[in-house]
Amino acid sequence: MFIGHYYHSIEAKGRLAIPATFRQQLASGGVVTWGLDGCLFLFPSSYWQKLSEKLASLPMTNPQARNLTRLLVQSASDLNLDIQGRTLIPEHLRKIANLKKQVVVAGSLNRIEIWDRDNYHKHLDLIAKTVSSDPELINLSI
């Protein structure tokens, strides 16, 4: 499970250090791809495999299913961590998420989200306002 958030910088070559607390769960590899809401998603290989099977089982006749599959699969890139825990974020993905130098690497349970730092905080502010104005929005019966 991925939790917490960490501030990092993308190097000039496009490399990003993955937080040490996340690396163990990525030891068998991972996939970075187009995310939703303006970020990138980084999935561990085991979860990506399950997600791929789910996407493959969606009906090809459903335009929304085809489009989601295209977004996630056609922009995907394998995670390759170097000895220092860095990975190259391909240029096309950096552009998709508008990643500049300062980024946030945030855990979201089964995935990691990679955000431009300013966009991350704007998005969280928007979420906080939405949740604050509608407490019924989230119904967690545990």
UniProtKB/TrEMBL annotation:
<protein>
    <recommendedName>
        <fullName>Transcriptional regulator MraZ</fullName>
    </recommendedName>
</protein>
<comment type="similarity">
    <text>Belongs to the MraZ family.</text>
</comment>
<keyword id="KW-0238">DNA-binding</keyword>
<keyword id="KW-0677">Repeat</keyword>
<dbReference type="InterPro" id="IPR003444">
    <property type="entry name" value="MraZ"/>
</dbReference>
<keyword id="KW-0805">Transcription regulation</keyword>
<dbReference type="InterPro" id="IPR035644">
    <property type="entry name" value="MraZ_C"/>
</dbReference>
<keyword id="KW-0963">Cytoplasm</keyword>
<keyword id="KW-0804">Transcription</keyword>
<feature type="domain" description="SpoVT-AbrB">
    <location>
        <begin position="76"/>
        <end position="119"/>
    </location>
</feature>
<dbReference type="InterPro" id="IPR035642">
    <property type="entry name" value="MraZ_N"/>
</dbReference>
<dbReference type="InterPro" id="IPR007159">
    <property type="entry name" value="SpoVT-AbrB_dom"/>
</dbReference>
<dbReference type="InterPro" id="IPR020603">
    <property type="entry name" value="MraZ_dom"/>
</dbReference>
<dbReference type="GO" id="GO:0009295">
    <property type="term" value="C:nucleoid"/>
</dbReference>
<dbReference type="InterPro" id="IPR038619">
    <property type="entry name" value="MraZ_sf"/>
</dbReference>
<feature type="domain" description="SpoVT-AbrB">
    <location>
        <begin position="5"/>
        <end position="47"/>
    </location>
</feature>
<dbReference type="GO" id="GO:0000976">
    <property type="term" value="F:transcription cis-regulatory region binding"/>
</dbReference>
<dbReference type="GO" id="GO:0003700">
    <property type="term" value="F:DNA-binding transcription factor activity"/>
</dbReference>
<dbReference type="GO" id="GO:0005737">
    <property type="term" value="C:cytoplasm"/>
</dbReference>
<comment type="subunit">
    <text>Forms oligomers.</text>
</comment>
<dbReference type="Pfam" id="PF02381">
    <property type="entry name" value="MraZ"/>
</dbReference>
<dbReference type="GO" id="GO:2000143">
    <property type="term" value="P:negative regulation of DNA-templated transcription initiation"/>
</dbReference>
<dbReference type="InterPro" id="IPR037914">
    <property type="entry name" value="SpoVT-AbrB_sf"/>
</dbReference>
